[in-house]
Amino acid sequence: xxxxxxxxxVVRDDAPVAPEQRGEKGTVVEIIENGQxxxxxxxxxxxxxxxxxxxxxx
Length: 58
Prior knowledge:
This protein is mainly β. A hairpin with a 4-residue loop joins strand 2 and strand 3 (36-41). It has strands at 8-11, 25-31, 36-41, 47-51, 55-57. The protein has no helices and five strands. The chain has a five-stranded antiparallel beta sheet with strand order 4-3-2-1-5, with no helix packed on it. The model has no long low-confidence stretch (mean pLDDT 94).
């Protein structure tokens, strides 16, 4: 899936991440060439990096 800056995304339930990160919702704030996407968590305001395959569009 192609994401762009400002998209609202959710961490997929089957993503290989810490269980507490699954289902987190946030905003795409940076995308780099290797497919990593920085997401600002709506609840905490913290930024986390995820591969695009771990995210789905809200």
